[in-house]
Write a structure and sequence with these properties.
The protein has 359 residues and is an alpha/beta fold. The protein has helices at residues 41-52, 81-96, 153-172, 187-192, 207-210, 212-224, 248-260, 287-296, 310-318, 329-333, 337-345; strands spanning 8-10, 13-15, 19-21, 57-64, 100-106, 134-135, 149-150, 177-182, 231-236, 265-269, 301-304, 324-326.
Length: 359
């Protein structure tokens, strides 16, 4: 049987196949008013289509644990009960299709308060629903971003609490998997990397200090997230810097730490914290980083990055390079990718009764 269509169990949750959807921001929530940060009809239609298409796990896009934790004013959030109720509509439908609903809990840090990508993605001010960004150090992402405000230790602890509160709400909203966003140059990644973390207190300097905030967030979320539900962590395995950044060696070391703190799977990506770097993007270019974590630790891993073809995805799993694959842009192009791949590889996938004529 196809490896891609074998179920995968973590704690008490069984995901029906290894075709997973990673978080992909839609920048489509209301930026102000009572519905700020709440999913709407667009989000429902977007996620519902991929569930009906047979995707085993759908991880909802980066969802702000606080208003200032959003990447843009148009991002989703999970800091109030109105948002929770709106998410329930989505999770109910995903479960009805046999898809496991997941959510990525995030804080954008110094890369917050930007416009939608199709509007240029530049930082925005208060006149466009923006706000002052926060970061471990007062170091701008690049010369186009404003200098962020350096967090105090009290503010750091407040954000740790925000992650825990968001996890409680995610559970109430019906999510079965939670993922902590520690990648792509957002707040947790900023703390991890010496490229962006120039602190001299207990949260900066040594590896142990730079990983402190991330592990405090993991511990706080794990404390409120049920023992029978898995918790993921997304990481940028490298910053593609020749020196002075977070490295693949750091990632392997940190994966073992995350395992000890109750993380069940690492979602391995790369980049996002250093501007102007050259990223050698090609089919499966990030898979070797996932493969290394899997080979050198006991941590289950998911691979992502220009995985588009069914045979390519099957080979990654059959070779033992990852436990699951995450298809981003390809699932935007083809919501029923899982069903087409199952037909090609001889696997089984859920098909809605209404679509029985398509089998």
């Amino acid at each position: 049987m196809s490896a891609l269509f074998q179920p995968f169990t973590l704690r008490g949750v069984t995901i029906p196949n290894r075709v997973w959807m990673p978080p992909m921001c839609q920048y489509s929530a209301a930026p102000e008013g009572p519905e700020t940060g709440a999913p709407n009809d667009w989000h429902f239609a977007h996620y519902a289509a991929r569930a009906a298409g047979g995707t085993g796990l759908i991880i909802v896009e980066a969802t702000g644990v606080s208003p200032e934790g959003r990447i843009s004013p148009y991002d989703l959030g999970i800091w109030n009960d109105t948002q929770v109720e709106a998410f329930r509509r989505i999770t109910r439908f995903l479960v009805s299709q046999g898809t496991v609903p997941g959510i990525q809990l995030a804080h954008a840090g110094r890369k917050a308060s930007t416009d939608r990508p199709w509007k240029g993605g530049a930082p925005v001010g208060a006149d466009a629903h923006g706000w002052q960004a926060l970061a471990p150090s007062a170091v701008a992402f690049d010369d186009k971003h404003p200098v962020p405000t350096e967090l105090t230790t009290d503010q750091i602890q407040e954000i740790v609490g925000r992650f825990a509160d968001a996890a409680r709400r995610a559970l109430a909203a019906g999510f079965e998997v939670a993922e902590i966003h520690g990648a792509h140059g957002y707040l947790i990644n900023e703390f991890l990397s010496p490229h962006s973390n120039h602190r001299t207190d207990a949260y900066g300097g040594s590896y142990e200090n730079r990983t402190r905030f991330a592990l405090e967030v993991v511990d706080a979320v794990r404390e409120v997230w049920p023992d029978d539900k898995p918790l993921f962590f997304r990481i940028s395995a490298t910053e593609w810097l020749e020196e002075g950044g977070w490295t693949a060696d750091d990632t392997v070391r940190f994966a073992a730490d995350l395992r000890a703190h109750g993380i069940d799977l690492v979602d391995v990506s790369t980049g996002g914290n250093a501007s102007g770097v050259r990223i050698p993007a090609s089919p499966g270019y990030q898979v070797p980083f996932a493969a290394r974590v899997k080979a050198e630790t006991t941590m289950p891993v998911a691979a992502v990055g220009l995985i588009t073809d069914a045979e390519q995805a099957e080979k990654i799993l059959a070779n033992g390079e990852a436990d699951a694959v995450l298809l981003g842009r390809e699932l935007l192009r083809s919501p029923s990718w899982a069903r087409h791949a199952a037909r090609q590889l001889g696997g089984d996938v859920h098909v809605p009764d209404q679509y029985h004529r398509s089998v």
